[in-house]
Amino acid sequence: MRAIRTIGFVAAVLTLTLATSAMAVPPPQHEMPPVHGVVGAVELDVPTSLGTFAVADGTYQHRGMPVRGEHVFTDDARLMGSLEAMLNYDIYSSGKEPVPAWGTMSIGDGAWTGTFTGIRRYDFEPFEMNAFLIGNGEYEGLCAVLDIAATPESWAIDGVIHPLPMGA
Fold first, then answer.
1. What is the pLDDT at residue 19?
2. Is the pLDDT of residue 144 over 60?
3. CB of 163 within 8 A of CB of 140?
4. pTM of the model as a whole
5. In this structure, are residues 88 and 66 in contact, taking their beta carbons and an 8 Å threshold?
6. Distance CA 141, CA 132 (A)
7. For residues 75 and 71, what is the distance between their CA atoms, to the nearest angstrom?
8. Taking the CA of residue 157 as centre, how many other CA atoms within 13 Å lie in the half-sphere pointing to its CB?
9. Most buried of the four, 25, 53, 79, 145, by CB within 10 Å?
C-alpha cells in the first residue's frame, strides 16, 4: 500500500513539474517580418482626360480621372518607376463637406498594383489617401502600405513595404 501511495505521489509531482515547466517556457515567438520604410514623391503629368461627370441625388460624381506620373522617387528602389492611377470622387450639393475619393493604382509598370481610398476636401486643397499595393513579378509576396498627401501637381508618399500576411 505504501508503494502505491509513493508511486501516486511521484506521479503527481512529475505531472505538476511538467505542467509548471511547460507554463514557464514561453510559446515560440514568430519572427516579425522585416519592414522597410518608404518615403518619396511623384510629380504628376497634366491629365489628358478628366474622366466622366454625372449628377445623381444632388451629388456630383467624378469617375475615372486618369492620374499619371513618369517618375516615382522613393528611398526604396523597389518602389520606383511610373505611376498610373484612376481617381473617383463625389462632391455633395452643399459643396462644403469633405468627400470620399477612391481608385486603383499601379507603380513601376505593374510591379505594384492595388487600390486606394481617401478624403478629398471641397476646396481641392491637399487630400490624404491610403493605398494598399501588392507586389508582382520579382516583388511577389510583398505589399506596400502607403499614406499619400496629394495635390493636383504632386503626391508625397510615406509608407512601408513588408511581406504579405499569410492567406492574403
1. 43
2. yes
3. no
4. 0.72
5. no
6. 13
7. 13
8. 29
9. 79
